[in-house]
Specification:
The structure is a homodimer.
Chain A lengths: L14 H14 L3 E5 L4 E7 L7 E7 L7 E5 L2 E10 L4 E3 L5 H12 L3 E8 L4 E6 H10 L5 E3 H7 L1 E2 L10 H9 L2
Parallel strand pairs in A: 5-7
Antiparallel strand pairs in A: 1-4, 2-3, 4-5, 6-9, 7-8, 8-10
The complex binds magnesium ion (2 copies).
Chain lengths: ~180, ~180
């Protein structure tokens, strides 16, 4: 398939910004309740100055134990991880931590909806890719350490960028999981 | 009703520790996938020293925009906030932020399961209390700024402390939401 054209462009917005904007739109219109989880941080030291807010002065980033986004849509539990890559031909597994794989696997076992939203930043293309397909690649073969873009194009779903909501991924969710 | 006895005692465990232990138990036995969200932090400054991990040197606690726990159980979206109070006669509204009220309201509108787990630490008693009852108290009257313990005893559900899992709240969820 040829590269879909991109009328709106990224305009310097990251995938996370686009998704936050979109989830805000979904919440305010009553379509879904989906939030990004806070970045996990290991807090080591906090100062409590008088008359001002507690200040964290030493902390470190922790590996997330789950994916970044979850919530409820059409009565179903929904869960996804969003990743950008500068790679132009494939999506490297290294982008997803072992705990996140395990988490997606758990969600599928419990009949939740789980997927990835993958943006190829240099190509300006974003795809929704089902978690079970991703886990098949990861656990089902040993030759490759990445998923070919070609497969993501064929078995995933292109998400066009729009003005508002920026990245209307629930339209794709309707198509894949509710029809 | 009289105070239920507490065979196992708190043994210095906070409600959060008890819930983390319990959720870990639920995940490892395949019963449910429920996680605590990370504490939301506004990161202001990060040092990137050579040859060691990025160090956050200035950050502040942010108000959470959702409740602290969510996940999937028996195919349903489940969401709750956990709070400890040292109050002996009532649960003050001030323990729950406006955003969290709004979030619980949203979840109920989308047919999710939402509740509070409230521990009266000095009484060593823990209760599950449905979010709709909580929101009724909060929005339905103006006289009180708290929910009487008596009401929580009558309309909530006492959760006994056990050895493992520490606080088996899904037994109560079965009773209230699945029977
Ligand atoms: Mg992430
Ligand atoms: Mg909290």
């Amino acid at each position: 398939t040829s590269s879909p054209s991109n009328l709106f462009g990224n305009r310097g917005m990251t995938l996370e910004q686009d998704l936050n904007d979109t989830n805000q739109y979904y919440r305010s219109t009553g379509k879904a309740v989906i939030h990004k989880k806070p970045t996990p941080v290991q807090i080591v030291h906090v100062d409590y100055p008088k008359r001002s807010a507690a200040k964290i002065t030493e902390a470190y980033f922790k590996q997330p134990s789950t994916t970044d986004y979850n919530g409820i849509y059409r009565g179903s539990y929904i869960d996804f991880e969003a990743k950008e890559t500068r790679n132009k031909t494939s999506f490297p597994f290294g982008n997803i931590h072992a705990h996140q794989m395990e988490h997606m696997h758990d969600i599928l076992r419990h009949d939740g909806i789980a997927f990835l939203i993958i943006r190829f930043t240099l190509l300006e293309q974003t795809y929704l890719y089902d978690a079970s397909l991703f886990l098949d690649w990861y656990f089902g073969q040993k030759e490759r350490k990445s998923i070919p873009l070609q497969d993501i194009r064929e078995n995933g779903h292109y998400i066009p960028l729009q003005y508002s909501p920026r990245i209307n991924y629930l339209d794709i969710v309707d198509l894949i999981y509710f029809s």
